[in-house]
Amino acid sequence: MQSEDRRSWVWSLPDGGASNDWPRFRSRLESVAVRRDFDLIELATDDQEPLLLLRREAADSAVRRLLVAAGFHGEEPAGPWGVLDFLEHAPEPLLYSASLCLLPLVNVSGFRAGTRLNARGENPNRGYRGVPGEAPSQEGRVLLRQRATLRSVARDGLLTCHEDVLLHHAYLYSLERAAAPGELTRALLAVNSAHFPLHPDGIIDGCTVAGGIIFNHHDGSFESWLMNEGIAYAACVETPGQHPLAQRIAAHRAMIEAFVRGPVQARDQ
Ligand code: NI
Question: What b-and-e string marks burial along 193-209, b requiring 16 or more CB atoms within 10 Å of the CB?
Answer without folding.
Answer: bebbebbeeeebeeeeb
